[in-house]
Amino acid sequence: MKVTAGGDLPHGKNNHQQVVPLYYPLHRYPSTTTTTHASATTAATISPVYHPQDEVIIINDNHHKCDVFSGEWVPNPDAPYYDNMTCWAIHEHQNCQKYGRPDSDFMKWRWKPDGCDLPIFNPYQFLEIVRDKSLAFVGDSVGRNQMQSLICMLSRVEYPIDRSITKDENFKRWYYVSYNFTLATFWSPFLVKSEEASADGPTHNGLFNLYLDEFNEKWTTQIDEFNYLILNTGHWFWRPALYYENRQIVGCRYCQVENITDYPMTFGYRKAIRTAFKAINSREKFKGITILRTFAPMHFEGGEWNEGGNCLRKKPFKSSEITLEGVNLELYMTQIEEFRRGEKEGKEKGLKYRLLDATQSMLLRPDGHPSRYGHWPNENVTLYNDCVHWCLPGPIDTWSDFLLHMLKMEGLRSAEEKSHVKG
């Protein structure tokens, strides 16, 4: 995908249109397609459960190059593949059906890449690929949103049991007994060491100390055993923060503290991602694949999150109707640049890095957020409209389609590498 950035960027003038690629060219392998011969009866709202013996995996060998992350949303009347009655893993604030969202069309779309097809997620195929393996999500609540979506997508086959080694709900481990597969989540919204300096702060949503050069050992010391890491970060960097390096304040983001330099959000964002990759590359025993999931843009309209902003659209944008621009573009490009840097350093140590580029697809989905439907309207608490997280079921389920495709490509890479060695 390509996006056009015109006009003024947040931190300086832009006197010309800039066309930048909204992807990273990792997918140099054939597209994987799946042929399914299912005969189950379709339920009223939930698509049929697949049977493993009916699955045939076909891998094209024409070496067609396809960027699965560039495309459009197209109708999918078969969706969704679970609901809030069949999956217990849905977080309350993303349970849009429970809290009265009146429309359902937002659940009935699938992602169609330009020039190829992206198969709908097949839970049997996924669980076979990750048999005897482990996968961890590291990041913020949108990462947790993704993990809960994956659990729901897998619920047609099996529910996991809780194998957490701590009572902290931010550090959960789930175990799929039949497949010896472990799924974990490690809470680290900034990826680096951090602490809350004030529960209020300039914008009344906290002021944080970010130690931009220090590993967050709550997750970095836990990753050695995992085959796959999926990292994400982004939304928490909008919050006011004091930036530290070598335990000294070097600046801040909207801290409103006298004599401290106020930096753009990308200052801390870049350093935090770089430190996270440095932490991974420094682990001698870690041999897994690191996947960076790019950030999913917010869709507040009519005001910011604390100014009555909302997201009430009923259908996706077309790619011609919206572009990634301003601070969103800067954050995206920062991720890509630091990904390339981390990948290069990791490659020198034999580590693999991959990009799950969700930014374009989610930029087009202003209709997929909980908005006011993450709680009852008469609850006697202050709750803002949520245009950050994603309803379940909803557009975020497509991230499992992306992930399965990427795991299939890893299998193809491995087979080709072994073939070259034998040759």
From TrEMBL:
Q: Where in the cell is it found?
A: Membrane
Q: Topology in the membrane? A: Single-pass membrane protein
Entry keywords, A to Z: Membrane, Signal-anchor, Transmembrane, Transmembrane helix
Q: Which residues form the Trichome birefringence-like N-terminal domain?
A: 65-117
What InterPro entries is this protein classified in?
A: TBL, TBL_C, TBL_N
Domain (Trichome birefringence-like C-terminal): residue spans on this chain: 118-406
Q: Which GO MF terms are attached to this record?
A: O-acetyltransferase activity
User: Which GO cellular component terms, listed alphabetically, does the Swiss-Prot or TrEMBL entry include?
Assistant: Golgi apparatus; membrane
Pfam annotation, one family: PC-Esterase
Recorded hits in PANTHER family, A to Z, give: PMR5 DOMAIN, PC-ESTERASE (PTHR32285:SF319), PROTEIN TRICHOME BIREFRINGENCE-LIKE 9-RELATED (PTHR32285)
**Similarity remark:** Belongs to the PC-esterase family. TBL subfamily.
What protein does this entry describe?
Answer: Trichome birefringence-like N-terminal domain-containing protein
